[in-house]
Amino acid sequence: MNPSQSVFEPLQTLTARALDLPGANIDTDQIIPARFLKKNRAAGYGQYLFFDERFEDRLEDGFEERLDSHCTARADHPLNAKNSPQILVVQDNFGCGSSREGAVYALVDYGIRVVVGTSFGDIFFNNCFKNGLLPIRLPLADHLALRTDLSPFGSLTMDLVNQCVQGSGHRASFDIDPFAKACLLQGVDEVALTLGYEAQISAFENSYSQRFPWLTPPVA
Amino acid sequence: MSLTLFDKIWSTHLVLPRDDGPSLLYIDRHIVHEGSFHAFNALRARNLSLRHPERVFGVPDHYVPTHSRLAKEAASDEVGNMIVQFDRNMQWGQVPHFKLADERQGIVHVIGPEQGLTLPGMAVVCSDSHTSTHGALGAIAFGIGQSESMHVMATQTLWQIKPKAMRVRVDGPLAAGVSAKDLILAIICEIGAAGAVGHAIEYAGTTIESLGIEGRLTICNMSIEAGARFGSIAPDDVVFEYLHGRPQSPKGEQWDQALAYWRTLKSDDHARFDQEVVLDGSHIKPMVTWGTSPDAGAPIDGVVPDPARLNDAAERASAHAALDYMALTPGTRLKDIAIDRVFIGSCTNSRLSDLREAARILRGRKVRVPGMVVPGSGLIKQAAEAEGLDRVFIEAGLQWRSAGCSMCVAMNGDAGQPGERIASTSNRNFVGRQGRGTRTHLMSPAMAAAAAVSGYLTDVRQFS
Predict the structure, then answer these.
(1) What domains lie within chain B, and their CATH numbers?
(2) Which helix (H) or strand (E) holds B195?
(3) What is the DSSP letter of A94?
(4) How many CB atoms neighbour CB B352 within 10 A?
């Protein structure tokens, strides 16, 4: 793969089914339990999204490798609904806790492209952009207004170019770093861009190692 | 202009500064564990290689068995394969690393300081949210994801938006029976689980300064539980004495040079902080958590709170859900809560002083519940055995294991049973964290030891 090739489906506008997901401080351990983090990405992580909430617990052991044969989907969980959402509206501090990028893989592989909240865990927030998932931070009033359209499902439209998200009764603007926005619109991450700064990085390293010689480890 | 400790370290790492978005930041030290397989796979998929393998250091910790030092004796073939795969990636990338069988192996955030791999003034990253631990040495250290890890491998840099500054100031002497763990749990209760999102915390004040290096590591370790990716303490002689003579610490003339620079690493008198939190250290009591977020804690002489008293409907619902999961009734005295298991370990509390604190309570007593003690590194294990702490734990009825993350994150098969209530010295009481359906109460090593002896959450001050 060429480093500048797209790494995910570009995101521009999206009108999609949205789900209002309750609960503040939803940590990444909830989004994907740790025991699934060793799985190969090739098979997709969507099946592990909110696993312990979505699937009936028939396990006799807290650490269980075999999952499918022991677990059945809970019919009443909204993420098990026939029409799965592509937009989640979440509460304060969504994605707090562990740095596991598997939480973002699970959301993306399930089909989520946009998460609308008031605040996010810092590491989770950064991880989202690298995988083509847009986390939108809204003021409380806008967040509340959009949620009134969802019970718990509804439809929302996200327009990244114009930086707004719209329900049937409310339209809210959001801020995004221009560089992160450009990456999402093109479906790329920043690796290729950074590699283009090779000369600047090398120049920095030269002066840095003169100033802090003890911080330059010997090359094996 | 007055600068914070964080400002000073941040500015020396700016490759491409930007005021209106992320700056390109140079990374001195990148620590990796078994979870790095996603980053290595992504690197290979793009036909990239590591720019500076000598700035990376690897050690397996998350998936390692603690009853053996062999990958083939891991909880399952799939778990064991994580360790084998890690070794292969270390070899592929020519990355300096410790293997599982190496006596220096241990938890990433324990061995970094122990080996002098992390130093004051550094920018340190690791794909683990508890990387803030290394900030106790006066570094800016933060958790990243696998994509960011791959970016650092390829470029030795990272695009980062500068966080806001928060100072947590604690003054006054800690009372007997109160440890660094109680202090950080009290700080998290004060700030809230999201209170420091977007901020870098600097811990300051006489209480913080009075802590030894291990207590400071415990404090900085849990910054993320208040939402902050970064937690630092200005380095002083406690840090310099600790680092002197460590395998990777600078030597000779370079040590003197480094030391002169390190002494400048503190916030200026009039440095500006976006938020300031002040606590009286002398008022802090031994703490335990009762809920499913690390900010859901209370002094041990308290009771399980009543969600009905919360004004906000969403907060009320969250508290109800937490008590439901934890099987607790409002008004129950915390000291009346019976436990089923104990875990002493994790990157928060697995260092020698932690083990000594637990052993002080356990010496000559028997535990009423099963449990394990898991040292943070092979060297800590050796040091503990040299002073007979292993005998104390074993004679009390606990298992004495080898180093790893173990039951803090339950990825290696060390896990509680569904429904079990666990007194744990780890850092997270999240739903299912220590195994599906397990109920975690966070506390200090001495408090966990006291709980193991009595079979209930217990005020360790009764044992002094």
Answers:
(1) 5-275 (3.30.499.10), 288-463 (3.30.499.10)
(2) none
(3) B
(4) 18
Is the Cβ of B238 closer than 8 Å to some Cβ of chain A?
A: no
Tell me which H or E stretch contains B450: helix B445-454
Asked if A179 is an interface residue toward chain B (Cβ–Cβ < 8 A), one would say yes
What domains can you pick out in chain A, each with its CATH number? Answer: 13-30+84-215 (3.20.19.10)
Which chain A residues are closer than 8 Å to B26 by Cβ?
A: 201, 204-205, 208
Q: How far apart are CA B223 and CA B269, in angstroms?
A: 23
CB atoms inside a 10 Å sphere around CB B47: 9
Chunked mean pLDDT (size 10), chain B, 464 residues: 96 94 97 98 96 98 98 96 98 98 98 98 98 98 98 98 97 98 98 97 98 98 98 98 98 97 98 98 98 98 96 90 97 98 98 98 98 98 98 98 97 95 98 95 98 98 84
A-B Cβ pairs (cutoff 8 Å, strict): 221
| Distance from C-alpha of A18 to C-alpha of A105, rounded to nearest angstrom | 19
| Dist CA B389 CA B382 (whole Å) | 10
Residue B198 at interface with chain A, using a CB cutoff of 8 Å: yes
Rounded Cα distance between B39 and B85, Å, is 12
What is the DSSP annotation of B151-181? HHHHHSEEEEPPPEEEEEEEESPPPTT--HH
- Residues of chain A contacting residue B63, judged by C-beta atoms under 8 Å apart: 38
The Cα–Cα gap between A104 and A116 comes to 14
Alpha carbon distance B214, B363 (integer Å): 22
Paired tokens of A138: 């809204």
Point out the residue among B16, B257, B261 whose CB comes nearest to the CB of A200.
B16
- Which residues on chain A are in Cβ contact (under 8 Å) with B150? 191
CA angle B29, B35, B36 (to 5 degrees): 50
The CA dihedral of B253, B122, B219, B401, to the nearest 10 degrees, is -80
CB proximity A217 to B under 8 Å: yes
